[in-house]
Each structure stands twice: as C-alpha cells, then as structure tokens.
Design goal:
5-stranded mixed β-sheet; 20 helices
Length: about 475
C-alpha cells in the first residue's frame, strides 16, 4: 500500500511540474544548460556528439529523443529524472527499513533548489537518477545490474568516477566480487562504440577540463556548506546535520547501522562528492567554478541522510510528547515553510531557473527579431553567447550555421555570407577580440547596435565589401 501511495504522489508531482514547464519560459540559467540541450539535439544529425566528454555522453544518449521537441522537451526529460530520483530514494528508504519514506518527496520538492534545477538542460538531474538507480538496484539484490548501471556514471559526470570505488567496496563486502568487472562495462562499451566515430578508443580517457587551474579562481573551504544551506533552507539543513547525529547514534549506541551497504552507497558517495568539490574549489583546480548545481547529483542520497534526521526527531518526539511522534518533524516542516516565505532564496532560485531573464528577453525580442526580419538571407552567424543561438533559431554547436569569434582572424575560412554579433563578454574574454579592434581594422561593416536595459552593448556586423 505504501508503495502505491508513493507512486501516486510522485505521479501528481510529475504532472504539476510538467504543467509548470509549459507555462514558464526559463532555460535553467547559464549557457551550460542551453549548450547541453544543443548537444543532445544535434546528436541525431551528427552522431559524434554522442561521444563528447563535455556534453556527457550517457546524458546525451537518453536526452536526445526529448531534445528533438525543442527546449521544452529537455525540461520535461529532466523533470522526469528528478521525480523518478525522489521515488527511488523513497523505495530505498523502505528497503533500509526507515519509517516515513513519504517524507522524501517533501524534502525533495519543498526545498528551493532541487526542483528548480530540473527546468533546464543541465546533466545533474539525470546523473542523480543514474546514481540513485544504481544504488537501488544494488540494495534490492540486483547487484550485477547495479554495478553495470554504475559503470556509466563517468559518462554522466566526470567526478562520478570516484563513486565506482564505493560500489566496488560494496560488492566485495557483500560477497559479489565476481561481479566487480561489470564496473568496467561503461568504459568498454563507450570505447568500442565511440571508436567507430572517433579516431581511437582511448577517447574515453580524455579530460575536458584543465586539471592545473581554474579561470574562475578559488574560494573558501565552507563554500559548499553555505551553498547547501541556501539550497535546502536552514530548517532542512538542520535535518541533514541531525541525520549525521542519527548515523552515530545507530552505529555506536543502537548498533544496528548497515555498515556493508548504507555506509558506502549513501554516506560514502554523498560525502565523496561534497568533500571532492570542496577541495577543488578551495584549491582552484580542475576548472571548478564553485557551482551549487554540482551537488544535485547526490541530492537523492542527501534526502536519505535527512530522513535519518527526521527519524531522530520522531524518536525524541515520542519520548517528549508520549507517542506523538509527529510533533518535532511537523515543527521543522512549518519552520521550513516560514523560512521559504520570509527569505529570498526560494524566489531567487525560481527566478533564476524557471523565468527567462530580462537580458534574454531583449536578445530574443530585439536582436533575434531584427535579424530575422532584415537579414533573412543569412544562414551563418559568428556568435559566442549560447542564448543568441536560441534567439536566431539555430543550433549553437552546429558549425554549418555558427562559428565563434576566433574566425575574426581567419575570415577566409568562414562560410559565406556570415553575420557577426558582438556581445560584451565572450569575444574579448575568450578570443581576444575587442570592439575597439574590430572598429579600427574595418574588416567588418557595422549594421546595427543595441544597448539592453541592463546596459549590455551588442553590435551587428557583416564582412566588409571594400
């Protein structure tokens, strides 16, 4: 009966979020969300995109059918991944004999951050589903299938390679060492299939990030703890802390903690990512930008830890209020709602991910519309801002239609004719092309310029004919 209620609850959540996807027009915030969508969309035309490390090959494989329906398709896909992650986490709670598994969905969708990241083309929601799916299979006795699925995690998120160690230890401790070679299945399959489109099967070992440093700099050691507080809300963050207390309580006082399973597949994987990202951000390595969304991959495991915090409150409620086990957990939930409505964190996540920002509106309605109306004969564009491609109706990584501003120095290699759209960030930062240089050299003819309400300056050029 409990599983049926959980299934019905998550089906309702899915429908509500899908409707919300249609009535909101955001792109999940940032160029990465849009670019991952473009990878998935273009993969059917150019299969080599199924094997691009930056694009995350396993994500591209499953997202590509949805991406053919436009950006709304990728949003529907990620929402489905997020809801399924919550459902599987609830089933794992039952498998681990944790009471109140239905609380998982509350923690997942009342907290401000997780559900808003689903309205995007980002890879983290799908990665979280693969993580929790592999954990569910392992804990359900289907260890072989769990290890097989886990073997594809490095092709969802680069840092997920570390997770394989915890699946390996789990298999050894649970007398399934003969199945451990399955953790190599993802590498082998992708090496062989990818070699049909790429030069060598060794492409699987390529690293899309610079391991020596980050252009984003570095930050403080408590950066991700502070981010988690914002993502969860202070009351729910308290549940996470209480979940750790419950871990020590079960392990050393009640002595009934599942050392051979939960320690590795829940706590181990979660803290490996949290600690790993903390280190790379503090040291400023591996291209780390200190982004909050990198934690989304292990949020389903965090919900299980938070559920332990709920259980701790339930047990103390029973002692303090005589059988009324719901008192303290209900109090935390009410405080959480109060926190959401009294702070800006919830609205900031909603506005950042579900709503299109004013700059994107300007690009769509002013720049995109102007070019389509006045220069319909142009099919190739030199642009570096991903949203500009959406406004023009082209695929950002389809080089039949788009080139970057590095071609300013080798325009003889450009398809003809081409329009150049100068934005205030990418051409100068990424390619060393300043607006002053363009105007000084007269290699391009200026056609139009705009200044957005936010003060951002855009200029439209074409190649000079004189």
């Amino acid at each position: 009966m409990t599983k049926r209620i959980l299934l019905l609850t998550h089906a309702i959540i899915l429908l509500v979020l899908w409707v919300l996807a249609f009535v909101t027009d955001g792109t999940g915030g940032g160029g990465d969300s849009i670019t991952h969508f473009f990878f998935a969309q273009l993969s059917w035309k150019e299969p080599a995109n199924f094997f691009d490390h930056w694009g995350k090959p396993f994500f591209t494989l499953f997202a590509s059918p949805w991406a053919q329906f436009g950006f709304i398709g990728i949003k529907l896909f990620n929402i489905l991944c997020g809801v399924l992650s919550s459902y599987l986490a609830s089933l794992i709670a039952i498998r681990l004999s944790k009471p109140w598994p239905w609380a998982i969905s509350i923690m997942a969708f009342v907290a401000p951050a997780y559900y808003t990241f689903l309205f995007s083309g980002l890879t983290e929601p799908f990665s979280s589903l693969v993580v929790i799916g592999a954990v569910y299979l392992c804990l359900s006795g289907k260890i072989g299938w769990g290890l097989f699925l886990a073997s594809f995690l490095p092709f969802c998120r680069s840092e997920a390679q570390v997770f394989l160690l915890f699946f390996f230890v789990f298999a050894i401790l649970n007398k399934s060492w003969k199945l451990t070679p399955l953790l190599l299945a993802g590498y082998i399959i992708y090496a062989l299939v990818g070699s049909l489109y790429l030069e060598s099967p060794l492409w699987i070992f390529e690293v899309p990030y610079n391991p020596t440093g980050s252009v984003y700099g570095h930050g403080e050691w408590l950066h991700y703890i502070k981010l988690m507080t914002s993502m969860l809300g202070l009351p729910f963050m308290l549940l996470a802390v209480l979940g750790l207390f419950q871990f020590f309580r079960k392990a050393f006082i009640q002595r009934n903690f599942k050392w051979k399973s939960e320690l590795w597949l829940v706590h181990g994987i979660f803290f490996s990512l949290l600690v790993g990202h903390t280190v790379v951000w503090a040291l400023g390595i591996y291209g780390s930008a200190g982004l909050s969304r990198t934690l989304i991959t292990v949020f389903p495991l965090l919900w299980l830890i938070m559920l332990d915090g709920v259980i701790l409150l339930k047990d103390y409620s029973s002692q303090l209020f005589k059988v009324k086990a719901f008192v303290l957990p209900t109090f935390i939930l009410l405080v959480q709602f109060g926190w959401i409505f009294s702070t800006s964190d919830a609205s900031s996540y909603y506005n950042a991910h579900l709503k299109r920002n004013s700059e994107d509106y300007f690009i769509q309605n002013e720049i995109g519309s102007y070019i389509k109306q006045n220069y319909p004969e142009y099919e190739h564009f030199v642009i570096d801002k991903p949203y500009m491609a959406l406004a023009l109706g082209i695929n950002f990584i389809d080089y039949d239609y788009r080139s970057n501003w590095s071609y300013y120095f080798r325009m003889d290699q450009l398809p003809q004719p081409a329009l150049f759209i100068y934005d205030p960030y990418y051409p100068s930062i990424q390619h060393g092309v300043s607006l002053e240089l363009v105007r000084k050299e007269n290699k391009l003819e200026q056609l139009m310029e705009w200044t957005s309400p936010n003060g951002q300056h855009y200029v439209l050029f074409k190649q000079s004919t004189f």
